[in-house]
Design brief:
globular; Amidase; Amidase signature (AS) enzymes; 13% strand; AS_sf
């Protein structure tokens, strides 16, 4: 046993300990592996980890040797990272949470995995997700239901809920999720974490099992804004194999960490989207917490502006989002690019295996009937463009730096119930960047001794991630509300 309490350690803290010779990478990795062993399939049985990297300790030893020769090898030297299991790794299976892909080992790492490894990160484990990232409760045929470490009767959000639960439970230092509709920010909200959905095109999707390349992006799920900024530094940038990233080179700062600023809220004008708040009894806990956060923002010098535009998140998903239209065509393209010997080469093949979780069958069948060639698809793309322009007009007319709203109008769903009333679709459909960070907790209960985490979300113009980091770092400094789950000592 390592005997090291690594809970809540940041990248900066770990590197400080490396540099002062108080810690080795092997000791750090061993401590995280012990936590996974103790709490994922034992104890509370969070069920968040699909597979552990069998070479993690070997990679840690190699990094320790490199450190002895020349110090830190990169900005993520020795940082154990949890990777959503729809991101390709050449040394581990990439299942997308589905038994139909259980033995599929890609020929190459995803572009962002290569960047992580080059920066010195260790892919410690691959995390559960809602199968094929197709919904929001983190249930898969390959692992089943992941539980929320703050309330074991609730889901951890989704679809990147395995990453969210794992980072909240301190199974790794930082995590990677993907987001098509809500899927980075939903687990962040549900697990008292920071979840950053970048502008579509800032981070490569090459080597990620697609849901909708129109809306897909990968991004950080972390315990602090500083760690999210450090991770984004590594992830962001042009990938020739993903044409959507070509424009990103124009917008990359020297470092996103340069925008971490305790005074970053002073003088900001931020619009409150009042129609993204609920009005019923089940919304009271979220509303109370978000309004307390808004009061803090006012005290920190923010000018809050009431925005009366009506956005209906359910309508946006049902009538404008193109995720189900894209799914079959984009997934088939990914499957065709895999090495030979695979069991499936199309969504039709996947359905025919009968190996998917019953909970996604309806969506899979619907996706089989849809296509990017449908007239309705083209109409939705036009509505998407109109929505993008509408948001830009709102922010320009009111001279806003950002928009703010609760990520989810009500508390995260109980296990077995559907995820409802999530507002993250606004950023997902438009492709605009957004960040969710901890706003607080609901009132404690027997099932949730600290309360259930509640997340606040900020949305900004395309490529304005520095503004998000500026706002979020200042609010985090003023309101350090994150607490690790109890019972995971």
């Amino acid at each position: 046993m390592s005997g090291i309490d690594i809970r809540e350690w940041s990248i900066q803290e770990i590197h400080r300990r490396f540099n002062s010779r108080q810690l080795t990478c092997v000791e750090l990795v061993q401590a995280y592996l012990e936590r996974i062993e103790k709490y994922d399939q034992q104890g509370p049985k969070l069920n968040s980890v699909i597979s552990v990297n069998p070479r993690a300790l070997e990679e840690a030893r190699e990094l320790d040797e490199a450190f002895q020769r020349s110090g830190l090898t990169g900005p993520l030297h020795g940082i154990p990272s949890l990777l959503k299991d729809n991101v390709d790794t050449a040394d581990m299976a990439t299942t997308a949470g589905s038994k139909s892909l259980a033995e599929m080992i890609p020929a190459a790492d995803a572009f962002i995995v290569r960047k992580l490894r080059q920066a010195g990160a260790i892919i410690l484990a691959k995390a559960n997700l809602h199968e094929f990232a197709i919904w929001g409760e983190t249930v898969s045929s390959i692992l089943g239901q992941t539980l929320n470490p703050y309330d074991l009767t609730r889901s951890p959000g989704g679809s990147s809920g395995g990453t969210g639960a794992g980072i909240a439970a301190n199974f790794g230092t930082v995590g990677i999720g993907t987001d098509t509709v809500n899927s980075i920010r939903s687990p962040a909200s549900a697990n008292s974490l920071v979840g950053l959905r970048p502008t579509v095109g800032l981070v490569s999707r090459t080597g990620i099992v697609p849901y909708s390349l129109t809306q897909d992006t990968a991004g950080p799920i972390t315990r602090t804004v500083a760690d999210a900024a450090a991770l984004l530094d590594v992830l962001a940038g042009h990938d020739p194999a993903d044409p959507a990233t070509a424009e990103s080179a124009r917008y990359l700062p020297h470092s996103y960490r340069d925008f971490l600023n305790a005074g970053g809220l002073a003088g900001k004008r931020i619009g409150i989207l009042h129609h993204l708040f609920g009005q019923e009894n089940e919304h009271r806990e979220v509303n109370r917490t978000i309004h307390q956060t808004l009061d803090t923002m006012r005290r920190l010098g923010v000018e809050l502006v009431d925005i009366d535009e009506k956005f209906d998140a359910n309508r946006l998903v049902a009538e404008i989002s193109v995720h189900l239209y894209d799914f079959q065509d984009h997934l088939n393209g990914y499957l065709r690019g895999l090495a030979g010997g695979r069991r499936v080469s199309s969504l039709q093949d996947i359905v025919a295996t009968g190996l998917c979780h019953p909970g996604i069958e309806e969506n899979l069948q619907k996706a089989l009937s849809l296509s990017t060639h449908d007239p309705e698809y083209r109409q939705r793309l036009m509505w998407r463009q109109a929505l993008q322009q509408r948001l830009l007009d709102i922010m320009a007319s009111a001279k806003l730096n950002a928009l703010v709203y609760p990520h989810q109008k009500c508390l995260v769903a109980a296990v077995g119930q559907p995820q409802v009333e999530r507002n993250g679709v606004l950023a997902a459909i438009t492709g605009f960047p957004a960040i969710t960070l901890p706003a607080g907790f609901s009132r404690p209960t027997a099932d949730a001794p600290l309360g259930v985490p509640i997340g606040i979300e900020f949305l900004v113009r395309p490529w304005a991630e520095p503004v998000l980091i500026n706002i979020a770092s200042a609010l985090e400094r003023a309101m350090p509300v994150r607490k690790p789950p109890v019972g995971l000592l």
